[in-house]
UniProtKB/TrEMBL annotation:
Catalyzes the phosphorylation of pyrimidine nucleoside monophosphates at the expense of ATP. Plays an important role in de novo pyrimidine nucleotide biosynthesis. Has preference for UMP and dUMP as phosphate acceptors, but can also use CMP, dCMP and AMP. It comes from Grifola frondosa. This is Uridylate kinase. Residues 25-35 have a biased composition (Polar residues). Binds 1 Mg(2+) ion per monomer.
Amino acid sequence: MPAIIDKIADALHLHRHHKEAESAPESSAPVTALQSSTEETGIVKAQSLAVESKRPVFDNEKVTVIFVLGGPGAGKGTQCANLVKDFGFCHLSAGDLLRAEQNREGSQYGEMIRQYIREGQIVPMEVTVKLLENAMRATLAENHEGDGWADGKGRFLIDGFPRKLDQAAKFDQEVCLSTCVLFFTTTEEEMSKRLLERGKTSGREDDNEESIKKRFLVYKEQTMPVIEHYSKEEKVETIDASVSIEEVHETARGVVEKLFANK
Ligand SMILES: Nc1ncnc2c1ncn2[C@@H]1O[C@H](COP(=O)(O)OP(=O)(O)OP(=O)(O)O)[C@@H](O)[C@H]1O
Ligand SMILES: O=c1ccn([C@@H]2O[C@H](COP(=O)(O)O)[C@@H](O)[C@H]2O)c(=O)[nH]1
């Protein structure tokens, strides 16, 4: 394991394979209780102390995870916001969680995250997967109201993740087996135009020409293999994102409706 990853894993207590009992598949071996750290927010918010186990933290029979992928600026965040209104999902953007951690006072990962994001590179998966797991746990503990949230159930749109094959494997095996991938596609030219327009007001350090080029390259080299992987498992729903926001939304809503109808 490279030194930086090892250091992060140590800080997150990942070498101990902590797991919690809540929402885990019933057939698995019993585990001991959850212990929360004193920290209110951030990566180490809720660490669990449990016996070694390889099962996912959340049971995919109860917790639905839909990954949302597509190139930078394809419109993932925009469509997630629409699907939240339609279906009561909890929308978790991996990029937003990383930016929040980057800006969290006292975070030991802040500077590292900033550098990765500026370069369009993928932050070491231990950090991102732990942020997602913590956010899911916190949401499930909130007693969220609405369809799909009774009796320990939940439904999540995980936006901009997994960006790399190793993240996909880690999340599916250790956090929750994903149900499907919504894959938004359009041309690089269109994505670039949208990002540069967004960059006029977003304040994002990576909405500039230089970072955008790097993000496209990382997307092609590292994220496309994730799409190919899930395509082989017949989990990918490809949605044309070149049309208007409303038209993309109609298609996306139809896809999710079908998915829930068959669940
Ligand atoms: N179908 C569309 N037509 C035109 N503009 C769009 C469309 N969808 C999204 N946009 C605009 O494009 C920009 C990028 O959209 P959005 O932030 O949803 O993309 P994203 O895929 O989440 O980006 P990133 O990967 O960088 O997080 C936003 O300014 C949004 O308003
Ligand atoms: O799983 C992830 C997701 C994102 N990143 C980094 O964040 C930026 C911005 O992501 P957006 O989805 O566009 O908000 C991305 O370019 C990566 O640097 C990551 O490392 N891992």
